[in-house]
Amino acid sequence: MRKSHLALVAPTSNHGTVGPQPPPRRRNIEVRAREYLTGAEIDRLIAAAGNNRHSHRDATMILVAYRHGLRVSELVTLRWDAVHFSQGQLHVNRAKNGSPAVHLIPGIELRALRRLKREQDPASPFVFTSERGSPLTSAGFRKLIARLGVAAKFKFLVHPHMFRHSCGFKLANEGHDTRSLQAYLGHKNIHHTVRYSELTSARFKDFWKD
To answer: What digits encode the pLDDT tens for the residues 111-144?
Structure first.
């Protein structure tokens, strides 16, 4: 007796015809030529946020996500007790079993966070909140960044994880060693960090000389 092939047959409707199937998800490389933004492009997004109702909050979210290489889940769950204003430090807890770290907070970012805390109404233990005082959701932040990408006239879809990639690319391009970059981004496996070193153009600086 032949084996049943039911497991290989696509689902059918009541009329015995194959039902509509969702289109396969396109790979990122088919949608965008790269998965990071340059510093100038980050500035464009922050400038676009200036037209929003919550412009300072939105601009600060972009700045913090970019400078600390935060995932969306790490950003929206960030609490004020992780921000040490007197020392200018940020305690970063990583998702996906990543290694935690303490980052320095540069002056412009520190001032932005001070203003955000001072103006937050209602006050909340979370850094980034809605008008009702609840933490912003990951989905809400993704939608916000997509809208800002359109407002900033990007010709490709901008998504929040690009901030993490942008952070890694910038630091690698400035010559920071891979081990330090691994610790900064909280990678358990250094193979996830090497991708940024591979992208830096500094590796090829002596290839052509006019």
So the answer is: 999 999 999 999 999 999 998 999 999 999 999 9
Indicate which residue of 84, 96, 111, 179 is catalytic. 96
71 given a catalytic annotation: yes
Task: Answer positive or negative: Cα dihedral of 8, 11, 12, 18.
Answer: negative
Element (H, E) at 103: strand 101-104
Q: Is 161 a catalytic residue?
A: yes
Q: What are the backbone dihedrals phi and psi of residue 121, each rounded to the nearest 5 degrees, phi first?
A: -145, 115
Check which CATH number belongs to the domain holding 74 and give it: 1.10.443.10
Q: Give me the number of domains the chain comprises.
A: 1
- The yes-or-no answer on residue 79 being catalytic is no
Domain that holds residue 158: 32-200
Tell me if residue 57 is catalytic.
no
Q: Is 184 a catalytic residue?
A: no
Q: What does pTM read for this prediction?
A: 0.80
Per-residue model confidence as pLDDT tens digits over 29-87: 454 568 899 999 999 999 999 988 899 999 999 999 999 999 999 999 999 999 999 99
Kindly name the residue from 94, 164, 165, 170 that is annotated as catalytic: 164
Whether 102 maps to a domain, the answer reads yes
Selected catalytic residue, list 34, 56, 103, 161: 161
196 is catalytic: yes
